[in-house]
Amino acid sequence: MTAEIAARTLGPPPARPAPRTPLLFDSSGIRSATEPPEAHGTPRDGVRLLVARPSSVTHAVFADLPAFLEPGDLVVVNTSATLAAALAGTRRTTGRPVTVHFSTALPDGGWAVELRPGARAGGPVRDVVAGEYVDLCDGGLRVLEAYPDPQAAGSRLWRAQVDLPLDVPRYLARHGAPIAYDYVPGRWPLESYQTVFAQEPGSAEMPSAARPFTAQLVANLVAAGVTLAPIRLHTGVSSLEKGEPPLPEPFRVPAPTARLVNVTRAAGGRVVAVGTTVTRALESVAAIDGVVAPGSGWTDLVLGPDRPARVVDGLITGWHEPGASHLLLLEAVAGRDLVAAAYRAAAAHGYLWHEFGDSALLLPD
Fold first, then answer.
1. In whole angstroms, how far apart are CA 104 and each of 33, 45, 251?
2. pLDDT tens, 55-83?
3. Predicted confidence (pLDDT) per residue in 113-161, tens digit
4. Local structure of 65: helix, strand or coil
5. What is the pLDDT of residue 154?
6. Run of H or E including 305
7. Who contacts 295 (Cβ-Cβ below 8 Å, separation ≥6)?
8. Coil, strand, or helix at residue 249?
9. Which of 40, 120, 121, 340 gives the lowest tally of CB atoms within 10 Å of its CB?
């Protein structure tokens, strides 16, 4: 294991600031997907797919994905499953109701949590005080300090000690609900927030780039000579869309996946990551020469112009808000010009944003 990789597996260090201002674009024409496509008779792989290459932008549907990949390409997916991470609670000091979002399980047994004043509030509670207690059904939690920076004033996330009759994943399965935001007015079951690859519960929100995949589409990819391989990265809450850099996240790249990445690149195939989570995990164990080693732990990697992608040649992704830090990661894979062209085309052609929305395939040279 290289020194760089070892440093990323010791624990969750403070997140570093993003090195460059993320891409801004005209968002006036953006529309959000307000419900799963299945709710209006469209299969998961029937959402739109914008394929952006340096020479062209193509409009297709996600089921057409095999037509844009080549035999020998490797598609890497995230097997993290979504938790029912939203819980109703009451602040003991004020008696006010809150919704607690369980974001990330921490190595010391605590959790990083976010408190919101309502089930679909537009932002977090900003007057949380270290030491206060939140009552939950048959238990509660005590807020300890701001996370990841204990000295941060008005923090959005907090390190908390939980006091529950079950371990957190089982407790959430019994009492929780999927995290939902105000652009989705209805309530949808947890199954709507799982991908076909979901195996290991741990993500506060769905690794949504993989949502359009279906079992039939996976079979079609395999039949076309495309290989699939797994990693696991548990994602935290996605309200980082306001330009905050990504927080440290736990990940694992298994040895068979690392071997497949290296073999694919040596044979001239492309490594296509399904989502920013997969990209971050793979690039966290990539040496300067592009060789990938198996690894696990926590990654604080921030991809961008100062740290371009070393092994990811293409990216399947949803659409991010103007100024979102995730756009820097897209640029690290595809370059700012290609990303900007894709976003201009998506806004002009009415693509739908967010977890139930449409997709992009970025294929730089």
1. 26, 29, 12
2. 999 999 999 999 999 999 999 999 999 99
3. 999 998 777 789 989 999 999 999 999 999 999 999 999 888 899 999 9
4. helix
5. 81
6. none
7. 1, 5, 8, 9, 251, 252, 253, 258, 284, 285
8. strand
9. 40
Structure tokens at 119: 């089930």
Which is higher by pLDDT, 102 or 241? 102
